[in-house]
Amino acid sequence: MATDTRGLTATEPAVRVRDLHRSFSESGGVLNGLDLDIAPGEFVALIGRSGTGKSTLLRALAGLDRDVAGHGEIEVPASVSVVFQDSRLLPWRRVLDNVVLGLRGAGAEERGRQALAEVGLEGRERSWPFQLSGGEQQRASLARSLVREPQLLLADEPFGALDALTRLRMHALLRKLCEAHRPAVLLVTHDVDEAIALSDRVIVLDAGVVRADVRVAGRSPVELRSFLLEELEIR
Amino acid sequence: MTVTEARPRTVTADVRVVRRRLGPGRRIPYAFWIGPLLLLAVWSAGSATGLISPAILTAPWDVVVAFGEQWTDHDLLGNILSSLQRAALGLGFGVAAGGVLAVISGLSRFGESLIDGPIQIKRSVPTLALIPLFIAWFGIGQEMKIVTIALISLVPIYVHTHNGLRGIDGKYAELAETLDIGRGEFVRHVVLPGALPGFLLGMRFAVTSSLLGLVVVEQYNATAGIGHMITLAEQYGQTDVIVVGLVIYGIFGYCADSAVRLVGRRVLAWRRTLED
């Protein structure tokens, strides 16, 4: 079923994963020999049912799984940024201070202001996080990621907690930002439509391996949607 | 036309369905002073009606007179300043040490294994019981007094700061790791602000403890200070002067606690709690 994408990427991949294994218990692995390449600037959506290892893979790429057993090879760019499901703004720092947190060099604050303006939060620099709506908080966390100009953006269901309308607006914003900054993106999502709307490539994960790997370009969304739902064994 | 141009507030009634409030509700103006003033009123009424005899507790107005006498004839201001300096020095050292120890023990397992045990043991030994030992080590001078006050205020700062620090949500540490920030920045932006509510609670206990320590250490060989004044008054049987001393201790404690709470309200503006 899986479509072979190897050979299509002419340049060095931004992300290269080979034979990745991760397990939380003796009985069974969450990731079982997973291979994955992501080209620079490529937007990959990762879908799969609950417990298929989507978040485990993302955390492995983010370097946040030091206590998880397993082996395999991972190569990621030097600059990786993570967007979590919750915005993770420090509640005791104002919005701008959250965005420039840990940012070094002159003009960090000015870059933070620009990033906030880019996500439509100009004028909210001095607000406390609790004063922002859920969508605004997630936009601020996007600004915090983008101001670091990552070569790889990892997003773990970033819009999962938002309402449907806000989610659509966030989709448009994320597409615009990715076109402007061109990071490689790995987006973990439950939402097949979100995957199709945003990505260049959709990967279906099942039992810790890639079950399907399809390019979005050149396929009709309707056909792609029913194909993906079939792969997810929803139909 | 005229209807639409009319100001809405002149025509619309304000009809709401309002839930019963479960939180404490709005602030009462000058709420700080209501309790203490009520206490003073009860004291005055008791003394005026003779329910509280002067032998048991001096009347408030006699305390005021005694205050005046002490101020003009016995350098009350000097005594106050001397006591304040002692308490502030001891508190300062205690808070600094307690805070630093809490951060070290909170952030490093090795630090915790070194620091936490001894402090928990120290907690169960009353500092006041250590005074004889401190007298042997430091003599009966100022050092002994400051060390005692420092130790007595160190413990609540340590316990509450450590508790606040360990209570910080682990997801913020994870975020900090993904941002590649150094340990120093992690402490400055995540650990210290996150532990601040705990530290301020510890501060309230520490301030009160430091005054408790002050009362006791000033009974030993002091030549100035409120405790010295009380000890003298005890020898001469001047109940009114003793009450002056007690009232001053009370005012110290109350003002210090209010100051800590006020600071807390300002620096914790990022929180939305039942307090607001």
TrEMBL record, chain A:
Q: Does the keyword rRNA-binding apply?
A: no
Keywords of the record: ATP-binding, Cell membrane, Membrane, Nucleotide-binding, Translocase, Transport
Question: Which InterPro entries does the annotation name?
Answer: AAA+_ATPase, ABC_transporter-like_ATP-bd, ABC_transporter-like_CS, ABC_transporter_ATP-bind, P-loop_NTPase
Query: Matching Gene3D superfamilies, A to Z?
Result: P-loop containing nucleotide triphosphate hydrolases
Q: Name one GO molecular function term.
A: ATP binding
Please give the superkingdom of this protein's source.
Bacteria
Location of the ABC transporter domain: 15-232
Q: Name one Pfam family in it.
A: ABC_tran
The record's section on PANTHER family has: ALIPHATIC SULFONATES IMPORT ATP-BINDING PROTEIN SSUB, TAURINE IMPORT ATP-BINDING PROTEIN-RELATED
Name of this protein: ATP-binding cassette domain-containing protein
**Can you name the source organism?**
Paractinoplanes pyxinae
Highest classification ranks of the organism = Bacteria, Bacillati, Actinomycetota, Actinomycetes, Micromonosporales
TrEMBL record, chain B:
The membrane spanning regions, by residue number, are 30-52, 87-111, 123-140, 146-165, 186-207, 241-263
Regarding the membrane, this protein is recorded as: Multi-pass membrane protein
Q: Could you tell me where this protein is found in the cell?
A: Cell membrane
- Provide the primary localization: membrane
Record keywords, A-Z: Cell membrane, Membrane, Transmembrane, Transmembrane helix, Transport
**InterPro entries this protein is in?**
MetI-like, MetI-like_sf
Q: Is Cell membrane among this UniProt entry's keywords?
A: yes
Q: One Pfam annotation, family name?
A: BPD_transp_1
Superkingdom of source: Bacteria
- Where the record annotates domain ABC transmembrane type-1, the positions are 80-260
- Which PROSITE patterns does the record match to this protein? ABC_TM1 (PS50928)
List the SUPFAM superfamilies hit by this protein, alphabetically.
MetI-like
Q: Which family does it belong to?
A: Belongs to the binding-protein-dependent transport system permease family.
Q: Which PANTHER family does the record match to this protein? A: ALIPHATIC SULFONATES TRANSPORT PERMEASE PROTEIN SSUC-RELATED, ALKANE SULFONATE ABC TRANSPORTER-RELATED, MEMBRANE SUBUNIT
State what protein this is by name.
ABC transporter permease
Question: What is the protein's species of origin?
Answer: Paractinoplanes pyxinae
